[in-house]
Amino acid sequence: MANELPLTTNTASLTRFLTHIQGSGVPAKVDRSYLKSVGFKSGNDGYIIPVLKHIGFISTSGAPETRWRSYRDKTRAPKILAQGIQEGYADLFEVYPEAYRKDEEALRNWVRSKTEYDEVKVGHAVKTFQALGAMAEFDKPVDGQSDAEITPAEASVPIVQATVPNAAALAASPSPGATTPSFNINIELHLPPSADADTYDKFFAAMKKHLFPDASA
Description:
By secondary structure, this protein is mainly alpha-helical. Helix content is 45%, strand content 10%. The chain folds into two domains: 11-134, no CATH class; 155-211, no CATH class. Helix 1 (11-22) packs parallel to helix 8 (119-134) and helix 7 packs across helix 8 (119-134). InterPro entries: DUF5343 (IPR035235).
């Protein structure tokens, strides 16, 4: 397992290349020749390739994966990248579920425990992770994304907050102008991300039946 973490000595090139993915066609293969052809000619730019493999953007042979293509959608790109980071750095996220929020020394200690890098390479590995994390969005799943790509354990959806008059108090009210006591009902529904519109319709229909039995259909 030692020395398996990717690193780059130039994080600016890495972030620039990720932006490049969104504005270019999908190549047949990503190798040094391709990097040079699109303007990444520095010897240090070669580090980009193992980083892309580590986060699932390209295969071991250099062919762009589905995640590369999904990342071209700029509206979803930060979340797609977050998924790749979490998969590539799965061991880190097991230790720190919010690893992207950890301070540099905590990350350095983790890299030291996983590699035989000297301190210079440890620093590059940490900076690489941080540069990727700075372009990602970890907190929410991708809109419309399939469960195979991103699957939150549970979707928490606040459905409704309603103020319903107390029926007994209404009957006892001496006049239309009298103050009527009321109570609040707060309902929070937990549904899996795969729930469709019909699921919600059935929930609202049941809620109406039990809370407002005299309402017209």
